[in-house]
Amino acid sequence: MERAMERFGASLLAQFRHKVPVELLAALRRECDDHAVVCSESLVVVPNAYGVELPESVHQELERNGGRVDQVLTDSLLRHGESRGYAWAGPLAVHVTKAPSVPNGRYRVTSRVMRHVRAESFHH
């Protein structure tokens, strides 16, 4: 089991080095879409603070390699929101953190509304 998790972690890390996994991007977009609030015909508001938790080993490796995955994810989610005509509840930020365990063994995505958010001080 431990070797399988190590192989999975190495595989996930390899995907992050070259591109953000499509599955993770899809999960972020789903999180955004699932929490959209229709305020009027022309106004749909979505959360602006998103958290992505990764297994500790993957997160540590990304930090060692200077990865800016949070910015890549923020940019991608921004493009998604623009394509849907969403209004963000505040400044958009996606913050990637490490977690001792995640439900599916790969990542956990959450969102919430925060008035003032900076990726460096994001605490989810």
TrEMBL record:
**Annotated ranges, domain FhaA N-terminal:** 2-109
Protein name, please? DUF3662 domain-containing protein
